[in-house]
Amino acid sequence: MNNIAWTPIGSWHSISGDTFFHGTFDGNGKTINDLYINSTSDYQGLFGSIGIDGVVKNLAVNGNVTGGRYIGGIAGFNSGTIEFCWVTGTITGTGINIGGVIGANNGIIQNCYTTVNVTSSSIHASGVAGMNSGVIQYCYATGSISGSGDGVGGIVGWNNGGIVNSNVALSQSVSRTTNTLAIRRVIGENTGGTITNNYARSDTTVNGNIITSGVGTNTEQGASIDDWDSTRFRNIGFNDPWWTDTRLPSGMVYGDGTEGNPFRVRNEADLRAVGRGANLHGTGVWSLSAHYRQVANIPTLTGGNWIPIGTSTNRFTGKYYGDRFTISGLTSNQNGMFAVIGNGGLVDHLGLLNVNITANTNSIGGIAGENMGIVQNCYTTGTVSGNDNVGGIVGRNTGDQGNCHVNGNYSTATVNGNYAGGIVGANMDGAQVFANYATGTVNGTRHIGGVVGYNYRSRITETYSTGAIRGNENIGGIVGWNNAGTVENNVALNPSLTRASGISSSFGRVAGRNTNGGSLINNFGSEIMTVLGSTVSTDNPTSIHGYRRNTKSQFQWAVWWTYSPSAPGPNWHATEYGIWSFADGRPPHRMNMPGGHTQNPVLP
User: pTM above 0.70?
Assistant: First the structure.
């Protein structure tokens, strides 16, 4: 239209009466280019106002529209139907209700998209509709949105009793110049409206901040997505034949390694880059101190022997969020997935399926050879073997001012070595092992435990073990050797503690050996557990054998673990904290764990 000033079709009202557009405008898939409006008037767009029986469809509009109140690329106000339309360019308004498609909507907007940048110096600004009291569904918007008052959002500024369903906000930036109220990724402000099945790109900045809380498909922030293509859009509901692949965007968030925007780990190539120092995807250095988020299950690794992340001198001090995804088939002749997790480092909600780690060295674990940080809500299956300090989750857990924790994990892995445990090999110097369980067999010669092999001046609490334990010296169902540490509220459900070979010494249902004032408090052992071929009659919560309890008559009942006076302790009543799940007929399960593996600990 060669930047010729445009007068909108239809208006809000006039002296002569209703002048809304009541007809049908079918664009037949064509584009109106260079729509130009530079006005201070209200109700500006290709159309000023569309009546309840008006229809605009199959139309693309490219242009620059500036006005006062009620400004949109298709129309300033809509009571009818707008569908199969798209808008590119810029939309600017000085008053209320400024949107990429429509200023204010009382009708239906569906199957539309915009790439416009929207700017408002008042309230209610968005990529699709500044204000909505109608229905907006199956729409997406990619442009940046800026407003100065309440109600700034990627799809709708203010949803005033309307329906906002199955939309995707792909704006990289949503901002408000005055304050931080009523500004969100999808809907800036919602008053009595219905919000369902909406999404937003995870790295959208809202007033410069990445949003990590209050997200979800039925919230104003929408659920976070890290990548999008035609398959994802069709799963959301963009299934009309009009939505060809060319009309649906594709893209992905790579992140920048910060806490708010971690690097995204999608596949084996990404995984093998973690902590290696490359500038992968051109978004920043994948360093040992960066933050990472896994966003998909990674199938069986095919790149050969795994080289652990970090070293003893260059430790991983970043954060690795597994987000309940899994990695399969990690095979290594070295320490584990991580060599050393340093102070401040974190690995969270990650599942390792069918690991095969066999190393002729010390400090070997499924997740990490050595941990000085936090490993939580993870699991491992497979086999972990080494020399000394070998664990299903961590080989050596070394405390640093009480900041070293292995909490809320489980392992079914078979563990082979000395100073070996189903969860941790050696727990040292103020470290903590809390709310874990292990079901795998643990084999070795000395200091072998179902949960921890060797515990020195550290804590083991609220754990249990169900695997058979085999060794010669300091062999226990929970811990092999407790040396000046604390072992409290644990349950040993192992079927047997057996001699590996030759002469044996120091076997106990709970702890094989307890020295230097170590505290054994309120621990329990199965009365049918055999210790060197025989059951043990000791019934003492502070002894190496713990209380003697009947496996079938007590351990199988959920109430025993939580409320019974003879239970391990009140900490086990932790369902409300998202730690343990209790049910009759089985030991407790860990809650909110990664998928890919069914928890199935069984009573002996």
Answer: yes
